[in-house]
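URGENT: need a sanity check before tomorrow's submission.

F., can you look over the Iron ABC transporter permease record below? I want to be sure the sequence and structure line up before it goes out.
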Amino acid sequence: MLVRGLAPDGHLDPGGLVEVLGRDRTGRVLWFTLWSAALGTLLSLVLGLPVAYALFRVAVPGARVLRALTLVPFVLPTVVVGAAFRALLGEGGLLGFLGWDGTPAAIVAALVFFNISVVVRVVGGAWAGLDPRAEEAAAALGASPARVLLTVTLPALRPALASAAAVVFLFCSTAFGVVLTLGGLRYATVETEIYLLTRAFDLPAAACLSLVQVVTVVALLAVLGRLRGRAGDAVPVDRVPPRPRRARRGDVPALVVTGLVVLATALPIVGLAVASLQVRGEWTLANYRALDEPGITTALDVPVLTALRNSLQVAVDATWMALLLGLLVALVVTRRARSRPERVARGLLDGFFMLPLGVSAVVLGFGLLVTVARPPLALRDEPLLVPLVQALVALPLVVRTLVPVLAGIDDRQRQAAASLGASPARTLLVVDLPVVWRPLLAAAGFAFATSLGEFGATSFLSRPDHPTLPVVIGRLLGSPGTTGAQSNPGMAMAAAVVLAATVTAVVLVVERLRVPSVGAV
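Structure tokens as predicted:
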């Protein structure tokens, strides 16, 4: 994509790059991406801090369930989150009176909803591991709770806070489905602008913005690498506080904020469910009954439930691909390096396979499309093309789930097995596999859930007669109107409920495994 955009005639054209960056539209897109991501990050930190404290340091009844619920928004497909906020804030929605529909406020609210769980997991896990004696000593010397927080606790949490902020900013600036669904053509981030430009075949502009995004992502990943080096490679994001203390009077504000955040987390999902059960203001199951009816709307070539089956099939293929490659990468980067160049090479390899985490899925999808569209790689109609790009999107989560576990295995155990005559394959089976099998199942769950909800890359590569469910939801949301007893947006809401329920079920199963999850990224 970069070659075709920046050197369409075989020669690099820096003037084209400058021309694209000088466009008024490009300036507005870059500015909107910057301030919306920064505001979403700030609000996620402000709201996530008290929730992290309440759920990881205070003996809250049902804390484990609440932690699982805070994770659900993050793993929901971005197109589902966008649909949920349209249902919540649109005309007739539960919060339609706010007048936020089609405004930047709706986009920022959705970004906070989507990313607050990252702050809760990363900061909460670090907070749970802090030695409380430093705080107790400061309090014994007369420091107020606020002063203890500012002078003792927050400095100790600084690496976790910075890591969470960098990850959230990365996700806010690349939330494709959320911005496309809520912002349309009026409000665009770099991610959605790349999509719109490639649809308009303006490859030089799309390539320019892709280059800007890649450079930004590489810089953020470098910052994350340094932060992980300071705080330890594996922040125990799923660690339950060993001895949570009973709630005190001073914990009331944090508990109130936690209750409000949990309520705010539930509202978009409730609004989505309500919208799926209504047509023209009347309660009905028509939207759900229409999901399996062929030819019910001209917006689709196949029934919605057929698209769900396609998604499940694609997710299975993407999962085994991501697991196979992710396990190989994790094994390579966690083996003991014998020299400094080897250690540097392993670090670069680890960082390289983290790039799909932040590089636009649109760049991956469209780049793969133009790469395989003609010989010698004429693979456009290959059935494994969509699973391949979804496996690339899920790969960083698989790698970051497996790397901390494999890195924690004492290499002397492998050496002992080898000295007793075990082959490398047998050493892997008797030493590594017993430790890694639960994280491996969790990684499979995350890959499967990520694949189910992937929208940006798949929107380019899926065939009209074999769409996935997120693509179908996007088409229905983009085709307003009513057909018979149901409406296209209503069918989109019903399909989003089905997709959200499927992804949530997968994530709750993964949560039962209690291994490092999204926060470990």
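My own read: The first helix runs from residue 2 to 6. The domain at 47-182+212-276 is CATH 1.10.3720.10 (MetI-like fold). If you see anything odd, call me.
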